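re: ur msg from earlier - yeah i can do the magnesium ion complex, just paste it... oh wait u already did. ok heres what im feeding in:
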Amino acid sequence: MAVKTVIEAIREGMDEEMARDQSVFIMGEDVGQRGGVFLATDGLFKKYGADRVIDTPLAESTIVGLAIGAAANGMRPIAEIQFADFIAPAMNQIIEEAARICYRTNGDLNLPIVIRAPWGGGVHGALYHSQSIEALFAHVPGLKVVAPGTPADAKGLLKSAVRDPDPVLYLEHKRTYRLIKGEVPDGDRLVPIGKAEVKRQGKDLSLIAYGLMLHYCLEAADTLAAEGVEAEVLDLRTIKPLDVAAVIATTRKTGKVLVVHEDNPFAGVAAEVMAVIMEQAFDALDAPVMRLTGPDVPAMPFNHVLEAAFMPSPEKILAKARELAKY
Amino acid sequence: MAVKTVIEAIREGMDEEMARDQSVFIMGEDVGQRGGVFLATDGLFKKYGADRVIDTPLAESTIVGLAIGAAANGMRPIAEIQFADFIAPAMNQIIEEAARICYRTNGDLNLPIVIRAPWGGGVHGALYHSQSIEALFAHVPGLKVVAPGTPADAKGLLKSAVRDPDPVLYLEHKRTYRLIKGEVPDGDRLVPIGKAEVKRQGKDLSLIAYGLMLHYCLEAADTLAAEGVEAEVLDLRTIKPLDVAAVIATTRKTGKVLVVHEDNPFAGVAAEVMAVIMEQAFDALDAPVMRLTGPDVPAMPFNHVLEAAFMPSPEKILAKARELAKY
Amino acid sequence: MATKTAEVEARGGQSRHRALGLSDERALAIYEVMRLARAVDERMWLINRQGRAPFVISCQGQEGAQVGSAMALKPGYDWVAPYYRDAGVVLALGMTARDQMLSFFAKREDPSSAGRQMPGHFGSQRLHILTGGSPVATQLLHAAGIALASRIRKEDAVTIAYFGEGASSEGDCHEAMNFAGIHKLGVIFVCENNGYAISVPQSQQMAILNVADRAAGYGFPGVVVDGNDVLAVYQATRDAVTRARTGEGPTLIEAKTYRFTAHSSDDDDRRYRQAEEVAVWRQKDPIPRYQRYLREAGVLTEPVEAAITERVTAQVDDATEYAEQAPDPSADDLLPHVFARELG
Amino acid sequence: MATKTAEVEARGGQSRHRALGLSDERALAIYEVMRLARAVDERMWLINRQGRAPFVISCQGQEGAQVGSAMALKPGYDWVAPYYRDAGVVLALGMTARDQMLSFFAKREDPSSAGRQMPGHFGSQRLHILTGGSPVATQLLHAAGIALASRIRKEDAVTIAYFGEGASSEGDCHEAMNFAGIHKLGVIFVCENNGYAISVPQSQQMAILNVADRAAGYGFPGVVVDGNDVLAVYQATRDAVTRARTGEGPTLIEAKTYRFTAHSSDDDDRRYRQAEEVAVWRQKDPIPRYQRYLREAGVLTEPVEAAITERVTAQVDDATEYAEQAPDPSADDLLPHVFARELG
Ligand SMILES: Cc1ncc(C[n+]2csc(CCOP(=O)(O)OP(=O)(O)O)c2C)c(N)n1
Ligand SMILES: Cc1ncc(C[n+]2csc(CCOP(=O)(O)OP(=O)(O)O)c2C)c(N)n1
Ligand SMILES: [Mg+2]
Ligand SMILES: [Mg+2]
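and the outut:
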């Protein structure tokens, strides 16, 4: 067991999977020689060669469209979208093709594809290098969407995603890449897709989050504890399929839930969590489920004042959690 | 006042707006000579000429991308996407450009664009001619999304959309085109974007819907009335911006709400309605808000048995409403 | 090569197929697939007009382009990514009339989709026919991806992507050709140019006369071929297959052709094209044209023709009867197969 | 025309600008904009390296292509849809050093976005500079749409869309050129080919040597021009503007050039290109090259040069000071302008 950053964990996960399985290969913009703009694939081009680490032209529909064809012909592509913000040119290939192919062939063809996309804000990335895209894709049946927050989960979910028989959108939060360090178990350890994890036990209220917001919630929970409020922190890890059982369990345990994400609220992941709780644990609620999200504006501005105003923060979480605790 | 079909109302709305304002023009696949595959633009090519009713090549990103440029240069384009199912190639232009331009220019440039898209199922259209796309776009800040259900609303909202200074996704339910007839007020009558309408008063429970489902809810409400249950039917008409006040008002009135749509549930419009009620009318609830939606499968199958199994129907609504009434 | 074809034809055409390395049997097999494709299609319209099935989309008129190209492949080894008109392609590669009719009637046994997709949305992993959705042009990138996989594994399988000239307007068409060109993939792009995208004529789709001219912008050859001359299509494809298999890279083949029917059973083509234009093209029907050639070449005798007709009719009858009576899916079939294995 | 340019240059180049109809003043104005673009850019790197601003993206090396083309337009009448490197374009069309610095420091007064977008995302409806987002190639369709609007209203305004050769791989690039070709729109596509899309060299982006060759596939002329020869760029653009203004349709101009800096302040170009290669291109720097020409032509005398340098430095100093001290937006500025008018 060694301490690693999130990006090291992701790189290691890819490296191990490529070594293990010849059918795994990487495609994307600048993933080769350059090692990716975040260096996620650093060293892999040298190690596995130009056939298995392919610098594509600047074209996202190409990246995903090729991945679909290659998967149909026996490969397990890892497709890198340079920033989540630039995934939209590939939406037709992802939503209308990749997500629907298993269903439309009645299971004759399934597509083991991983689409990696760095997402999230707080990096002075402005409107087009800060976006949260999880709700758009989680809404689409036929896709799995994961968003690990810790190095161990990042590696374990990367490996699970590569071995998964279906298209997995693997979201890596840019801000956590080098900020978040943690123990990563040695060896071939998978983290299952579809399983949330309680990252901190508590009995008074539940904070539900993923990605960078997990860490902000844990920070807020520390402060709350000092104030005598024991917050449980549930890390969704996988957004689709949502671990409904874990959501309901924490709701029944605490009766008070706050869902936190950077993405804007309208028909977002928090709305779905609220809907599921409404449907399955209405009787257990001691307060309405609350959400703390990015605002309903098109994307995160560049200027630091505006960026800070946009981003949920430990302080904002704390304020909302206090409100909930008092309800 | 005359009785018209939904498609006649839409055509008339476009015709009147084009006659009124020289800057309004139409672009899309087969909209010219052919009059559109549903004949929505029938006769307009002859009347307004090839300059104002433009047959584009088969390319949706083209249609929306051109609309953005033309709007920036003083025009009011109506862009037709032949089927909602084929809007994905234009998602980059819609989400990353059209929706973000007013915000990113701090209001220097706003885009009066209407994107019309026939949506919805029940027409033997199979996976790619039956889709519901409202949640994907309603999630995106910077877009307005309307989905009228009656001929009067279809015309009034079309005219409002054309005059609106911002991008409006105008969803027309294919199944209602010729099925639904109704009185359409003569003259220049607008229906405001952002306003829901109670289409039937009731005190026992609320059915919230839009598009074809509005009519199924009204049908179910008739049967419920015969059973002694007075259902209020709220037609959202506009999905974004959601008429939260109307949603909360009906919730406070009846205490019991069922939201109905064809779109799959995960992070859909029903989830948002449930979240909003959770946030603003939790205390008024006599039962958990329920939703009846299409299933979480990639899209609606072709075979008639499967299509019927997929579609919400008056019977399914009735069953769920009875459950709610009894709660 | 084009010159050569023309020459052979000029010499009376009696040995064109042999000059192409096609045995008489093979030449007749091509004819029979074309006949079958046409016969199934005609039957579908009949049934549709009787109200027994909701939707048809046709290959009629394009059988030369389809069968001529597909017959240049190794079935089950090479790959195709067809589009919705390509009944002739999939029949050439191992799908049957029953398969077509099962999909037409949307029955559970439909091998392409178990009744989930509209007719014309072919797919079979076993036959190396890539599943097609309705959005046009996506399959060009899939085909490039299939070819990329073959390249990575150092296999010499060839992939053909089929598409209409309408689909060539989509960004994906550009992207697929660009990538294939860069990596000299073993992929062939076959454009069935029938002059219309539903109602929109070619002149409103592009400012050029030949889609094939675009190939130069991607660094590989573009070939224009008479799509209603099945042997010319075969020849162009065979040459492209050789290039592809030996690592020389892609070819774009544009087969000039025409569709005889409306776009689909939901369309009314009288709104946008003249009856005279259709009549002119009917004179160029690829099936009678090839029939004449085979007769003149002495390959298609009366008894052979009669036997083919009998087999085709029998297959269509059998397929119709079988498929119409085959069971529908049940409501329980709605939910499975969203994913490869359902999550526990 | 290309031959003629070469001839004039061969004759010692002393009257190339006059042969192009450029007065001495205009020739100097071109030079001054290039100098200003370079100077603002250099200052930004300095400030960034001092940690006073988080991000730079550069025009350095591409000023010839940018200023040479933009100066062929009527400012405020014609339109441009620039991309993030096009500081030279927008400075030529009326943006100021202050505007650049306000955006660089993301201040409320930034005319492009009030500090919402990264630097390099220019926009001004007043100046007919279309707002740019980060996704590449979308602006090509916007430019076609702008030109379509001009066409519908029977105005002769010309629109230039700027893009890198990397962006040419996107589907939108194909779609924009295809539509513009069909309708012979008054749009010019200027590709600043600097040989790389971040780290990916041209050879991995396309199988051809000249992006301009693609124009043939869209039915209009493609022109390759030395992007570091500002007068050659001016000439090619002027000719294209004439075509566009008179209804003859689009032109694709490929300006071969190079970027001197890393892709942005977040990039390390030593990972993918050799210092020698950069050095070779630095020899071809468009600014000293044009400077030499103007000196030899007797237009750029010592005192004129000194005056220009003084003005440029003063503007950069003023802009830096002004912008750095200008107020940030406040948290209240986060929510407005999602829509044209907020809903009541
Ligand atoms: C992305 C997309 N947009 C629109 C459609 C609707 N549509 C179906 S076929 C068609 C025309 C196709 O023309 P072409 O590619 O020339 O093929 P053809 O039908 O002529 O064989 C259109 C517009 C579609 N299937 N996909
Ligand atoms: C759709 C999209 N994908 C990816 C990116 C990330 N990105 C920004 S610039 C760039 C390279 C652009 O290369 P080119 O078009 O040649 O312009 P240059 O920077 O060389 O001037 C990339 C990949 C983007 N901005 N947009
Ligand atoms: Mg066609
Ligand atoms: Mg470049």
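cool cool. Chain B touches chain D at residues 25, 51-52, 54, 56-57, 59, 61-62, 64-75, 77, 89, 92-93, 96-97, 100-110, 141-142, 144, 165-166, 194, 241 (CB under 8 Å). ping me if u need the other ligands too
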